[in-house]
Every structure is written in structure tokens, then in C-alpha cells.
Amino acid sequence: MIRSCFQAVRTFISHFPVTLCPDAVSHGALIKSTRLQCSGHRSARGLSMSLWPLSANPRDFSLPNASWSAEMQQVYDHYNALCEVKTKDSEEKGPWYKLPSYNRSLKHAAGGVYLSKIIQSKSRLFTRSNKEYGAAFEYVIFMNKQEKKCVCAFQSGHLLEGPPGHVHGGAIATMMDTVTGTLAGYLAGPVMTANLNINYRSPVPLGSVVLLHSALDRIEGKKIFVNGRVTSTDESKLHTEATALFISVNVGHVFGI
Ligand SMILES: CCCCCCCC(=O)SCCNC(=O)CCNC(=O)[C@H](O)C(C)(C)COP(=O)(O)OP(=O)(O)OC[C@H]1O[C@@H](n2cnc3c(N)ncnc32)[C@H](O)[C@@H]1OP(=O)(O)O
């Protein structure tokens, strides 16, 4: 029991924190690539590199690729510039931090009790489960810890169609859950979504680039209240509004142990 708990925690720390608690990322290559991308290099919070059990070079899905439109690249460049270290005399860092994004989450989740080992080994983070560039969820999240908010540039791929020529509402909800949940997890550690309330105001054209904005409303004990909005990149058009409640959980709850 103790050993399986340890294994579960180790796997959780190694994979989930990338989105839920990026401060905890300790992988050397990740830190290195993060430094290259953005000045917001985070401390390892006491975790050692040996905790990383998988590939030495996991793919960061949130880096620019050939499928990105000029608009997507522009938004990325804008926020990435706000991350850069202003190196003159001081090592002043920008307020924004680009989160890396990987496609593995948990290998030893409670669902594994019911699922075959093949399914366990093939499990992937939903939003990063399609490796084809540009086919589904292309996105990058920038976090502003000082202001307790984040922004996500999201380019929808052809697999996300709902109404003809527009993005499926479930795909928008998925992104909303991801972005608001990432913020809640970044600020409060491991969390799960208890409630996600969405108002769809105007359809999102398939293939377009939109921004998802999320900000902390308040924290009450275990409860983290977060809001979210989807807008056009110039923020002139509102597509979606949301509120979300996340509950802080201990690692054992996530694993069902
Ligand atoms: C990759 C990065 C993306 C991250 C985002 C993606 C996250 C997800 O999608 S998670 C998957 C979807 N969510 C789930 O499966 C969660 C299923 N639900 C659960 O596991 C539990 O109900 C859980 C963890 C939410 C809460 O359980 P538990 O810790 O026992 O909380 P509990 O003690 O009952 O309630 C705590 C407080 O929250 C409140 N609360 C709990 N659920 C709700 C709810 N749905 N609505 C309103 N309030 C709620 C309770 O009333 C209580 O309030 P108070 O302290 O004032 O009395």
C-alpha cells in the first residue's frame, strides 16, 4: 500500500504538475527549455530530477509549430516577450510565465483498477492526445502569478467541429476547464473541477485563434472560485463566459487511494 502510494505520488509529481502545479516541475530538460522560452524559470520546490521516470525529452506541445497561423504566432510572441528576462544589470523577470504542456498525465490513476494495462499505458491528456500538428487543440497558456490570472491562445483544429464551420461547444468547455483548472492548480496545488458554468455568447469560427482569459475570484478554504472568458484576439468580441469552482484535493483523492 505504502509503495503504491509512493509510486502514485511520484507519477503524479512527474506528470500532472506540468499543468496543475508547474512550480513543481523538476525535470532538467524541461527547466532548460523553459529558460530558453521564457524567463519564468521556477524553482524545483525540493524535488529531485530523479523523480522523472519517463522520456528525457518529452515534447512540449505548447511550442510554435508549422500549423500555427500568423495570428497564433503573434499572440505567442506578444506574451513570450513579456516573459523575457530584461538583462542589463539586473535579472528582472517579466510578470508572465509560459507553461510547458505534455501529453502524459497519470499512469496509476484509480481508473486503472478497471482498465487494462494497455489502456493505462496508452492514456494521454485529452487535449494533447492528437499528435498531428493543428488537428485539434493547439494552445499555449501564459500565467501571471502576481495578478492571479492567465491567458491562453487557442487555435481550433478541423477535428473540433460542432456546428458547420464552428467549434464544438464541448471543445470550448474542455478548453475552459483546462485553462481555469490550470490557473486554480497553479495557485492552489492539486484540484478537481466541482462545477463549471458556461454561457455561450457567440460561435467560435473553426480554425480561428481566440484568447481564453482566466482570473481568480476568491479562495474560501478548499474552494477556489475562478472565472473565464473566450474572446477574439483583439478582445472586441466575446464568445464565451464561464465561472468555475475547483476543490483542493490531496493526491490520494486523485488516485482513489
Ligand atoms: C490538465 C489540466 C486541466 C485541469 C482541469 C481539469 C480538471 C478536471 O476536469 S477534474 C475532472 C472532473 N471533476 C471530477 O471528476 C470531480 C468529481 N468530484 C469529486 O471528486 C468531489 O466531489 C470533489 C473533489 C469535487 C469535492 O469532494 P470533497 O473534497 O469531498 O469536497 P466536499 O467536502 O464534499 O466539499 C467541499 C466544499 O465544496 C463544496 N462543493 C463541492 N462540490 C460542489 C459543487 N459541485 N458545487 C458547489 N459546491 C460544491 C461543498 O459544499 C463544500 O463547501 P463548504 O466547505 O462550504 O461546506
Automatic annotation (TrEMBL):
Arranged from A to Z, the UniProt key words for this protein are:
Apoptosis, Cell membrane, Cell projection, Cytoplasm, Fatty acid metabolism, Hydrolase, Lipid metabolism, Membrane, Mitochondrion, Mitochondrion inner membrane, Transit peptide
What is the reaction catalyzed? (5Z,8Z,11Z,14Z)-eicosatetraenoyl-CoA + H2O = (5Z,8Z,11Z,14Z)-eicosatetraenoate + CoA + H(+); dodecanoyl-CoA + H2O = dodecanoate + CoA + H(+); (9Z)-octadecenoyl-CoA + H2O = (9Z)-octadecenoate + CoA + H(+); tetradecanoyl-CoA + H2O = tetradecanoate + CoA + H(+)
Q: Does the keyword Protein transport apply?
A: no
Give the subcellular location: Cell projection, Ruffle membrane; Cytoplasm; Mitochondrion inner membrane; Mitochondrion intermembrane space
Taken from the record, one Pfam family name reads: 4HBT
- Under Enzyme Commission nomenclature, its number is 3.1.2.2
The residue ranges of the Thioesterase domain are 165-236
Give the main localization category: membrane
A Gene Ontology cellular-component term: mitochondrial inner membrane
GO-annotated biological processes = apoptotic process; fatty acid metabolic process
Top-level taxon in the UniProt lineage: Eukaryota
**Record flagged with keyword Amino-acid biosynthesis:** no
MF terms (GO), sorted A to Z: hydrolase activity
Q: How does it sit in the membrane?
A: Peripheral membrane protein
Family statement drawn from the similarity comment of this UniProt entry: Belongs to the THEM4/THEM5 thioesterase family.
**PANTHER family per the UniProt record, alphabetical:** ACYL-COENZYME A THIOESTERASE THEM4 (PTHR12418:SF19)
Recorded protein name is: Acyl-coenzyme A thioesterase THEM4
Q: What organism does this protein naturally occur in?
A: Tachysurus vachellii
